[in-house]
Amino acid sequence: MTKATVRTALPGPAPAVLVLTVPPAERDEEKEREAELRSLMDTAHRSVAATLSQHLARNVAATRIGSGKVEELAALVASSGAGEVIFDCQLTPSQQRNLEEATKVKVLDYDELILEIFALNARTHQARLAVELARLEYAKSRLKRLWSHLDRQSFGGAVTGASGAVGGVGEKQIELDRRQVRDRIVSLRRELIEVAARKDRAVEARTGCFNVCLVGYTNAGKSTLMNSLTSAGVVAEDRLFATLDTRSSRLRLDAVGRAIDVVLSDTVGFIRNLPPQLIASFHATLAEVREADLLLHVADCSRDVMEQQIATVESVLTQIGCGDIPQIMVFNKADAIWSKTLVATARKRQKRSAVVSARTGAGLDELKMLIATEALKRTTRATVRFPAANGALAAHIRANAAVNRESYDGSTAVLDITADSAVIAALDGRAVVVAR
Ligand SMILES: Nc1nc2c(ncn2[C@@H]2O[C@H](COP(=O)(O)OP(=O)(O)O)[C@@H](O)[C@H]2O)c(=O)[nH]1
Ligand SMILES: [Mg+2]
C-alpha cells in the first residue's frame, strides 16, 4: 500500500467555520482573503463548513470579535455541525479560551493553522525539528489554556470550596509541562545547530527521476495546476514511485516522440502576513525545494499585485539557496487576466515562461513541452545488461533509475532505464551499458 492510500484513509479534522476579521478599510479585499484562507485550509487537509465575516476596526479584548458576533458564531457552529473554528488572525490565549467556551469547539488562530501546514509539509529531519520548535514556542504561552479544562470539567462548580485545591492541580500540571517544554526547546535548539553543521540531507533523493517543484504564493493555483497537469496524463508504473508522498505525482511527458517521466511536487505556498516567529520553520520546510531539478514558479496573473508577489518569491528562493535552479515562470489564471501588458512585460524578463489557465487547460501543452525540454537536458536513456543473479546491482539500479522495461535474455537481465547521466556513467564496468 502506498503512503497516499494510508493518508486518505485517515479521517480528517471535522469541518471548520472560518472567521474573517476584516477592518472596514480592507473590505474590498474580503473575497481575496477568503479565497486565500480557503486555499490554506485545503493545504492543511481541512474542510470548510461555513464562513463568518466581521467588519470591525478594533480588537475586542475578551473575544477579538464583538459579543453579538460571538453569539452568531456559536449558532453557526451548532447549525453547521462544525467541529472547530479557525480565525484569520492571531488570538491571545485568553481570547482563544473564551471563544472555546462560547462555541464549545476548538478554536484555532492563524498561526496555529500555518504551523500545522508546515508540520504536514516538513519532509526533512531539519524541517521537522524547526517546525516542532516553532510549535513548542507557540504552545509555551498557551499551556494555561490547555489545562484549564482540568479545573472546569473534572472538579468545577458543584464542589464548593474545593476550587483552591483544584486550581492547584492545574497549576502543578502547568508548571510540570512548562519545565518539560523548556527542556525540549533547549534540546531542539542544540539539535538544530548540530544538524545544520552536518549539512543533513534527509530528503529521500528520488534520483533517476526528474524532480519538478511547484512554488509560488498561496492561492496562485499550484494545487489546481498540479491536478490538471497530472489528471489527464498517462502514469508510469507505481512501484517506481513507491516513495512518493501525497503531495507528489508522476507525470509522463512526450518529448519529441520519446516518453519522459518526471515527478511533480506541490510545496507549501508563500504566505502573506507570515508571522515573523514562523519564518525559520517556513524556510526549513521549503528546503526540500533545493533538491529540485526544475522549479515551476506559479504566479497569479489575475491580480494587480502579481509583480510584488513574484519579487517576494524570488527573494525567498535566493535566501534558501535555490536561486540557481532552472525555473519556468508560469503565469496562471489566464482566463481572468488582470492586464495583458503587465504579463507581457513580466514575460520579457524571464528566460522561460508560459501563460496558462489551470482551470480551463489553456496553455498546458506548451508548458508540458517546456518541462520536457528541460528534463531532456538532464536525463539519459540507456539499456543495461547484467547477470540476473546480481540482485545487489538490480536493487541499486531500481533505486537510482526509472526502469522503463525489463526482460531476460537467458540468465542476463536487460533493463531499459532512464536516469541522470552521472548515474548511467557510474554503471560502466558493473554492467554492459548501451546508450539509446
Ligand atoms: N480563474 C482561475 N482560477 C484559478 C485557476 N487556477 C486556480 N484557480 C483558483 O484559485 C484558487 C487557489 O487555487 P489553489 O490551487 O488552491 O492555489 P495554491 O494555494 O497555489 O495551491 C482556487 O479557488 C482555484 O479554483 C485558473 O486558472 N483560473
Ligand atoms: Mg495548494
Structure summary:
By secondary structure, this protein is α/β, with parallel strands linked by helices. Helix content is 45%, strand content 21%. It has a six-stranded mixed beta sheet, with helices on both faces.
Commentary on this structure:
It is a single chain. The chain is an alpha/beta fold. The protein folds into four domains: 15-108, 3-Layer(aba) Sandwich (Rossmann fold); 125-198; 210-376, P-loop containing nucleotide triphosphate hydrolases (Rossmann fold, 3-Layer(aba) Sandwich); 379-435, Alpha-Beta Plaits (2-Layer Sandwich). It is 45% helix and 21% strand. It contains 15 helices and 14 strands. The strands form three sheets. Strands 6-7-5-8-9-10 form a six-stranded mixed sheet, with helices on both faces. β12 and β13 (412-420) form a beta hairpin. α6 packs antiparallel against α8 (163-198). The protein starts with a helix and ends with a strand. Residues 1-10, 153-166, 200-206 and 233-244 have low confidence and may be disordered. Guanosine-5'-diphosphate (GDP) binds at residues 35, 39, 42, 216, 218-224, 269, 332-333, 335-336, 357-359.
